[in-house]
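Schema walkthrough. Field components (list of strings):
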Amino acid sequence: MLSEILERNRSTGPLVHCISNYVTANDCVNLLLASGASGIMADDADEVEEITAMCQALVINLGTPNPRRLDAMLKAGKAANRLGHPVVFDPVGVGGSALRREAAARLLDAVRFSVIRGNASEIRTLVDGSAAHRGVDADTDCQDTTDLARQLARSSGAVVVLTGAEDIVTDGQRTYLVKNGHPMMRTVTGAGCQLSALIGAYVAASPEKPLDSTLAAVCAMGLCGERAHHRMTQLDGNASYRNYIIDAMFRLDGTALEEGGNYEIL
Amino acid sequence: MLSEILERNRSTGPLVHCISNYVTANDCVNLLLASGASGIMADDADEVEEITAMCQALVINLGTPNPRRLDAMLKAGKAANRLGHPVVFDPVGVGGSALRREAAARLLDAVRFSVIRGNASEIRTLVDGSAAHRGVDADTDCQDTTDLARQLARSSGAVVVLTGAEDIVTDGQRTYLVKNGHPMMRTVTGAGCQLSALIGAYVAASPEKPLDSTLAAVCAMGLCGERAHHRMTQLDGNASYRNYIIDAMFRLDGTALEEGGNYEIL
Amino acid sequence: MLSEILERNRSTGPLVHCISNYVTANDCVNLLLASGASGIMADDADEVEEITAMCQALVINLGTPNPRRLDAMLKAGKAANRLGHPVVFDPVGVGGSALRREAAARLLDAVRFSVIRGNASEIRTLVDGSAAHRGVDADTDCQDTTDLARQLARSSGAVVVLTGAEDIVTDGQRTYLVKNGHPMMRTVTGAGCQLSALIGAYVAASPEKPLDSTLAAVCAMGLCGERAHHRMTQLDGNASYRNYIIDAMFRLDGTALEEGGNYEIL
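Field assembly_structure (string):
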């Protein structure tokens, strides 16, 4: 199943519109290209509707936010919804400022997301924030990240990916635990941003099964993190490792993903 | 001839002012440094005239556009014209939005470009747009990319580079077909942006022959793409390849370019 | 002594808020991660006070400036001062435009910096500018970079790092000359930006001795430049070298820094 999703992305090569931070933008596009998809960055409100219309998916990344980029995100998100394109949300550092929390709340209100990907703290902020925002009594003491992810999936209608030492992928009904990945990935800025971009491509290529497509992307990224680590020499550090992850994605085929994908159903 | 242009760039080390997108900015500056030139990015209208005045060339790249950056482009372009500096235009994704088309039209009206570099679709958009804009009957059905490039060269007065599987370089009179390059270059974001930056450096170093300087830059970039591919291992993908292109530029000397440059006169 | 500072950074892992240019942002964060610290980029005035409050240091980098980012720099700098966080200033290209000179003057007036790092021309511009600004008769003919650095250290109260073929580190009283580094570092964009980010981390980890922490960061970065060069092959150029510097930082331990640190007291 993972194999099929990877191959569909390679054969269809979706174009992904990314509204992203400037720190990891280059890596995101190169990771998309490595996967067989491609990416275009555009973040001005005057053009994002047109750019989104020529793409097959939209990925909204909350890093280095500002009010002008938020306007563009809202416009692009609504346009993608009208067109039926999958929209991925990566709430980078959402707990870090009111600007980010409010941006996230406005986006969750105005845009229907196909997938939301964040770490435990980011997902928790969305659950608390959106709960408060909707007047629902949020379980702010929730310790179980699986419950947290399921809760956001149910309230948002999106597939939720909560990444950490192990990753959770859930649509609120079915839940997967992904054991791919390597601790070395935490030493590279933008591994999460790259995963969010890849999810956009995979879901665009197989829109009829967003949960499985997302699972495949999470497994693929984690597996590339493993393979990249396997390749490291005694002199290599996180910069070479960053390149090796993208290289591994370039080389990854369906058979390798099918064999290396390491997940279970919860 | 190619050798002399490369060496002139190495010996004079021009400083190139880039108004660029944030996706490929880092690669553009490192490619310039690899060639022996150097680069400075500055995109605020309040400072671009001064920054351009301390440089020897200006490269305007239309990626990730917004109205503020367009103001800066117009100001910088006019200042560079007054100073007699070569100005290169890279109309990234110009067909993708009205914002980009209008920005291109305003730039083509207000700024005299030494070189314009784009792919077939971008050059076609400029030909159609500027033709419509000037009330001329554009040949919108033109299939021949050579004619397209020549047409833009004649209407704009710029050397035009149309990059693809093979590259066309023309000033409207003389036309070269460049066969350097490798398909792998399409898997790297910003190879085109880097070429545009390099053209700025080469033309600044040899301003008396913009066509030949541009030809040399196109051959050099393509040759580096070939050499970078030659170096790839079974584990390398587009991220390592991206580095290898810049590395190859760092190592490229006049003799190698003279021998490896692969072009013919059309 | 250098060893202890490196190890303190690794064991405490400070989070550094960077307000940076978009050209070198990715490398700065990856260099921080390589060192054991981490980084967050945020440059909108609406959020920088909150972001700075969750970090342990602030690094203000003047590359690709604009009025909006300057507002953010001023707000963040004042907030960091209130919180007692170290603030590092990297006046990239400050002599290049009135926008940059005025931004630097406003920042030096409003923010108390722990460390200022620049090349000779940048430090000279700050000395002249701030002197003129304060109505003091600046020694604009000063040839001696050591005097220049001491002068700025005394007038600003900051530790000053003046980088070049050899680097000067001074608080106006004690002065070090650092002989680490390699000429190849000049072929990489952002080596200076990365050093400034690293200084922020080291000073945050050992805030009781800003001069020694800064010295350790300067030695560490230079030593990584040497080690990266040692690793280069006949095919490698500045792109691989860029990665090798960050890799070397990832691998650098206290013992190696203690042995390889090459400095003397002036």
